[in-house]
Amino acid sequence: MVLRTFGWSFAVTAAGLAFAAWQWGWEAFGIVLILSILEISLSFDNAVVNAGILKKMNAFWQRVFLTLGILIAVFGMRLVFPVVIVAISAKVGPVEAVQLALDDPGRYQDLVTDAHPAIAAFGGMFLLMIFLDFILEDRDIKWLGWLERPLAKLGKIDMLAVCLALIALLATAMTFATHAHVSTGHADKTATVLLSGVAGLITYLVVGGLSGYFEDKLEEEEEHEHEEEEKARAEGKPVSAVALAGKAAFFLFLYLEVLDASFSFDGVIGAFAITNHIFWMALGLGIGAMYVRSLTVYLVRQGTLDDYVYLEHGAHYAIGALASILLITIQHQISEIITGLIGVVLIAASFLASVRRNRALAASGASGAEEVTAEEKATAQA
User: Which of 107, 193, 326, 349 has the fewest Cβ atoms surrounding its Cβ within 10 A?
Assistant: First the structure.
């Protein structure tokens, strides 16, 4: 099972490291390896959240996620994305941007760094909305009940998540961006941060709204499967349910890709602290992205999220932390080690809490309707 799921990741790792050593030497080998580990450590929470979405898809769309999705993740976000940033910032063509990266890597890095406020605002707002929508929803299973119960009550207020996100964006733009202008003399990034943050918010609302809409429609179809089949046959449209499933899966896939892009922002920017060689960066981050993809599928196939029910909570708390870090880094530098450790600690804590919960349920013999009550007692005791 492990080899079947991670086989491609192992093969890409071996081939990528061998190519780096052959083409550029042992220094490139070491840097590519470090970048791979960096990407995996920063993106473990991404895999957990992705698994919660991917498990709703059939085997075909899971394969699409691992094939077409990895091409988008590796070549789109890890190679093309930094080049596009430089091309826009320097007002040059993509070819000239690549040439700049090869001939003047220092200037290339400066241009990407200069674009960081816009990137961080977009990604931070997108991830913040994911966290807020999760934490403000009333769920049967709660990890930190003392926090999640009152927030679930507040979540009944319409558009509260959007309002909180916009307040965070305004505070970030006015506090950090303006402060950067006053204290360092750099160009005022307030307008840039605001526009990029609003774009991230709109992207979440559009993509998340479409995926949620079609997912709800798909669930309705599954609930009334037999009735809809008879109706479709009577109308001569036997494939209508299949077409709907395709739309639902497509928008969920699109949502996954935007989510992965938002998660990758910190990895791409953080990689410049290690190297400004675009091909070493793309290779190292790409290898890491392969493992994140494989881990996502592994979690789905093993049913890990069903067995360890707090993992999804921990991952979303890690998303909230990452969103905050991205917004803070508009003005202040934060080590990627801290970013990675926060995610690992939160997920590890949620995993251990899940283990304690499972032991408590097994000891009490709880099942069915009693499970939630027993789970809450276990959480309170923990």
Answer: 107
The Cα–Cα gap between 257 and 296 comes to 13
Is residue 90 predicted with pLDDT exceeding 70? Answer: no
Whether 360 contacts 377, CB under 8 Å: yes
- Higher model confidence: residue 243 or residue 343? 343
Full 3-state SS string of the chain: CHHHHHHHHHHHHHHHHHHHHHHHCHHHHHHHHHHHHHHHHHHHHHHHHHHHHHCCCCHHHHHHHHCHHHHHHHHHHHHHHHHHHHHHHHCCCHHHHHHHHHHCHHHHHHHHHHCHHHHHHHHHHHHHHHHHHHHCCCCCCCCCHHHHHHHHHHCCCCCHHHHHHHHHHHHHHHHHHHHHHHHHCCCCCHHHHHHHHHHHHHHHHHHHHHHHHHHHHHHHHHHCHHHHHHHHHHHCCCCHHHHHHHHHHHHHHHHHHHHHHHHHHHHHHHHCCCCCCHHHHHHHHHHHHHHHHHHHHHHHHHCHHHHCCCHHHHHHHHHHHHHHHHHHCCCCCCCHHHHHHHHHHHHHHHHHHHHHHHHHHHHHCCCCCHHHHHHHHHHHHC
- Rounded to 5°, the CA angle 164-169-173 comes to 150
pLDDT of residue 211: 65
Q: Is the pLDDT of residue 268 over 60?
A: yes
Q: What is the pLDDT of residues 313-342, one digit of tens each?
A: 887 888 888 888 888 888 777 776 677 678
pLDDT (tens digit, 9 = 90+) per residue, 339-376?
767 877 888 898 899 889 888 888 887 554 444 444 44
> Rounded to whole angstroms, what are the CA distances from 123 to 120, 310, 323?
5, 25, 7
| pLDDT reported for residue 232 | 60
What values do phi and psi take at 44, rounded to 5? Answer: -65, -40
CA distance readout (Å), 366 to 351, 353, 356, 373:
20, 17, 14, 9
- At 144-172, the pLDDT tens digits run 888 888 988 888 888 899 999 999 999 88
